[in-house]
Specification:
Distance between the termini: 32 Å
Number of helices: 3
InterPro entries: Fe-S_Maturation_MIP18, FeS_assembly_SufT_put, FSCA_dom_sf, MIP18-like
Domain MIP18 family-like: 90-164
Protein name: Fe-S cluster assembly protein SufT
Radius of gyration: 17 Å
Oligomer: single chain
Shape: globular
Structural class: alpha+beta
Length: 187
Amino acid sequence: MDPLSQVYKGQEMPLQRDVDAISIPFGKAVTLVEDSTVVVMQAKGSSVSVSYEGRLYLIEGHDLDSLGLDALERPTLDPGASEEEMEAFVWAQLRTCFDPEIPVNIVDLGLVYGCRIERLLTGECMVTIRMTLTAPGCGMGDVIAEDARRKILGAPQFSKVHVEIVFDPPWSREMMSEEARLELGMF
């Protein structure tokens, strides 16, 4: 059973242990302490957005045990993965990233314009993600970028992830997948 199916919006949950989280909208790593009570705001993809003391935080799936749920296994790649498998992994991880305010992943929302994997002179692999936001003033860019970075870095093949936020071309509703428009009632 998917542990996120056991979580609903507004549910209060005491933290079972200290947990690293991403602050929203700043995208900075913070530690929420054991025995604190958080309120679930959204459970989508492989993350849970929670409220604690009037602020929002993102807890990754591999840390769900901090909420008393089964932790999700952190996705990774076989050491001998091909270039195609590495690119498919990156796209799969991006599909688990959500704007904390919108219940649609960033790929189906049309925010990701592309990804490029490069081998550096050191032999390391760097991923560059080119994406936009729903509006230039959207404050969630740092959170989404940090969420994507952390998930992609779960694979040992990748040592660096650069997320480039661009506004040309500007995002529009037409960039959303049909499934995303259905989810948001935009037909």
